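FAQ
Q: What does a multi-component entry look like?
A: The components come first, one per line:
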Amino acid sequence: MHISQERYADALVLALAGRIDNSTTEGLKTGLDSYVAACRSEGDRLILDFSRVEYISSVGLRVLMLAAKQSREQGGTIVVAAMQPVVREIFEISRFNLVFECFGSVREALAKLSPAGLVAYDAKRGE
Amino acid sequence: MAGLRVTFWGTRGSIPVALDSASIRDRLAKAIVAAAGRSLDTHDKARAWVDNELDFAVSHTFGGNSACIQLDGGGKEYVLCDLGSGVRVFGHHVLARHGPAHSSVYHVFMSHLHWDHIMGFPFFAPAYVPGNTIRIYGCHAELESALRRQQDAPFFPVPFHRLGATIEFQVLQPGRSYDIAGWSVTAKLQAHSGDSYGYRFVRDDKVIVYTTDSEHRLDDQVAVEGAATFFADADLVIFDAMYSLAEAVSVKEDWGHSSNVVGVELCQLAGAKHLVLFHHEPANNDERIAQVWRETVRYEEISRSGAPLRISVAYDGLEIEV
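Then the predicted structure of the entire assembly, as tokens:
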């Protein structure tokens, strides 16, 4: 799975795309591993931009859970932002919305996690 | 050819659950409000409205008793899965139907020997009736000793050897097919503390899978494919949906149970036709279980790539024709 990244100060926004299911989960896991390893209290805050994710299955959700658990143990933070309505439904049905912090947009996530990142984000977009 | 029927006598997981008075008063109030302005001045009218129009979670309770289901293929002998507290109700049903003088043969397939799955047997009235024969099948070597031990002092006043029925035990081998009471039956090892076993029943080209107290590790592709093969083309899959997916892969990982989401995905992978959510979490009230049912129907729509999968939720007294 292709994961594109953009840095905003101490926040790293990882943009995922497409369907996250049995055929793509291994790629997601591999792709996330190096970022998660660097996700610690004094390091990056990870924001997963789900705006282009169309679907996520149980096995994909489990990968997210493992990544969140690892980052938490390191003192870091992973959140999800900008879910499409159907993906938000899947989070609600699986109750992942209760264990994962979810934001309506990347900007909202930055506002909560990284004031410096929000400044950088707005500056890049001319706001 | 007569159809097959599955009757659910006990559907709750871990421990029986009863509606309390506060819950009954609350749902009576909901029903009265919902009935406002309607002319429900006879019992028949009121009953028809309750049956057809009142919200399911108000008019029903999901129960109830712990695991016990009956498979009816039209034969004279009875076939059950598990001996949870639901078997007490089943036993009274049989005695009411035939009277105590009638002798019957009962075949019981045990998923495992945890207490919630055996606790009904001391209260199974036909076990006290001479002339009845009860054959209990399972894959655990301790099958007989577990059933005997729960009736030893000080746990129960009537020891096992005082039961009047002829009670026999047969330990089955997983993966081997057996012809029992007109069914072809195959057991499969499942992930659960102390192991559990699912059963695939085949009769008249119909397939019913009973798979409770089973955790499915999604990262284990071999196990996933094994489950899909076991469920393959099933007409009915009775599935342990005790937890949410988030619970099952986090705080309750390795607790030996599964979720509605995984049930849908495995059934879709297997080409199964009908999924029944079973072994309900005792902490969930009727409203929560009804919500899980609605959400599971929706998840099936979202994740569907082939033929539709019907979704039901088990409750004590539910009958499903297969």
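Q: Is there any commentary attached?
A: Sometimes. For this entry: Chain B is about 30% helix and 25% strand.
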